Amino acid sequence: RKVWTWVSYLEEERMPAAPLKLFREYQSFPQGRNGFAVGLKLEGLDPVRPSRFCVLTVAEVVKGYRVRLHFDGYPECYDFWVNADSTDIHPVGFCETTSRKLLPPKGLKEGEFNWTSYLKNCNAQAAPESLFKTLSTPVTPSGFHPGMKLEAMNKKKPSLMCVATIMDIVDNRLLIHFDNWDESFNYWCEASSLYIRPVGYCQETGTPLTTPPGYKDSNAFSWEKYLKETNSQAAPATAFIPHPAHEFQVNMKLEAVDKRNPILIRVVTIVDKDDHRIKIHFDGWDSNYDLWVYADSPDIHPVGWCAKTGHPLQVPPGVVDLVGKVGQGCPTPGCHGIGHVKGSRYGTHHTVIGCPYSDVNLKKENLLQDRLSGEKY
């Protein structure tokens, strides 16, 4: 059979590639190369608890632009993938120079941790600063300051607009925390994001505002009163300059990271959309596997991204696969035995129990125990 190409596939399918102009800069073709190497150490945000900066080590670099990061001192099952230009990673010393709290590796107390002696003890090197993406001109969003209140969309429950606080600001990104909510709901967004709105937006637009859980006057919530009670300020309405909504359309094709097996990038088609998200269908797979993804996610890319960065693209099952069958023949249709439901510790699987796509595992959101459970922080 002939080799799979995007050009002939788009012709066969009679569907368009999502135009390049719809993608954000960090989703599009990268300018630099991926200079990260296994063993280099760095600081970065925990994807599960986005307000925490942690000590990380590069555990794997796929040919291409992606890097698997490991939390020092913790099991490999918590490893996670980022692109080399991710804004969630920083050079060693970032937290110290910017007066932020760095969570030390497991087993070390906060006061005991020191990068110089730690690198020496590990016989390891810090990732060079030149590898990290820096904004050509440092932008601090004007008008926003930590502690200010606003109304924000809850990304884990997108139908809710909630009372929220800016917890931190790094470059042009704000850390949003929902008042009285668990920190796992926190997220970072650009100052121009459509997820955040000024105080009073919900009242003006007739949108229900979700008040902080446990707040005594939730039925008669008044921002004026709440700001006094919390001794805080509202972010000024003039600071909000939202960028235009996404323009992705149904039937457009693109390349996307497979969340269930994030070492892989697959051919996908947009099958639905809302104001903030697109629903992606993995071509050649059952619609059970379809996923909603935020349109500003760093895990979606234009057609040709894999070819440009050198990352292997998983073509739809049923056509000749350039990667070859890596695993040992998993019984799930379309799966080649790559990856494992228990995370990055295992590269392959050959049973339904270990398969990230099997019916047994499909509906299980998170099989991992919380990484920090039982620890004081």
From TrEMBL:
GO cellular component: nucleus
UniProt GO MF annotations: chromatin binding; histone binding; zinc ion binding
Superkingdom: Eukaryota
First and last residues of every MBT repeat: 4-105, 113-212, 221-316
Family annotation (SUPFAM superfamilies): CCHHC domain (SSF103637), Tudor/PWWP/MBT (SSF63748)
First-listed, main subcellular location of the protein, grouped into a coarse class: nucleus
UniProt subcellular location: Nucleus
A Pfam short name: MBT
Protein name: LMBL3 protein
